[in-house]
Amino acid sequence: QVQLVESGGGLVQAGGSLRLSCVASRNIFSIPVMGWYRQAPGQERELVALMTTIGITNYADSVKGRFTISRDNAKNTVYLQMNSLKPEDTAVYSCNAKRTGVLGFDYWGQGTQVTVSS
């Protein structure tokens, strides 16, 4: 079992920045993929960014060049640095921990609201 707690959301003006944090209840070194997803009202949840234990990253096209995902295994924390925010980035952002396979798992945090005003 892995509990994930996000923080860092809030209200920001367009062009501003926020840094989201996701703290895991156990060492994330053994978690193959940590990611951030978002869901806006009336829309499906979508991948924002993910990062593997060996540093491979993947970003949604809409955030490339603006968002950066990173992980600090020593602090059991994954970050999402969001720069040049746009109103369309407004959503609930959730952290995810995933491992596929027979011993796989898929855990989610409760989410943190990000609101970007124009």
Q: Which labels suit this protein?
A:
single chain, 118 residues, mainly beta, seven-stranded mixed sheet, four-stranded antiparallel sheet, 11 strands, globular
The number of helical segments is: 0
User: What structural class results from the helix and strand content?
Assistant: mainly beta
Overall residue-averaged pLDDT value? 96
Shape verdict: globular
Give a quick account of the main beta sheet: strands, pairing sense, barrel closure: 7 strands, mixed
Low-confidence stretches: none
The portion of residues forming beta strands comes to over 45%
Query: C-alpha Rg, in Å?
Result: 14 Å
Distance from N terminus to C terminus (CA atoms, Å) equals 40 Å
Order of helices and strands: EEEEEEEEEEE
SS elements, strand count: 11
Structure description:
0% of the residues lie in helices and 53% in strands. It has no helices and eleven strands. It has strands at 4-7, 10-13, 18-24, 33-39, 46-52, 57-59, 67-72, 77-82, 91-99, 105-108, 112-117. Strands 2, 4, 5, 6, 9, 10 and 11 form a seven-stranded mixed beta sheet that branches. It is globular and about 45 Å long. 30% of the residues are buried.
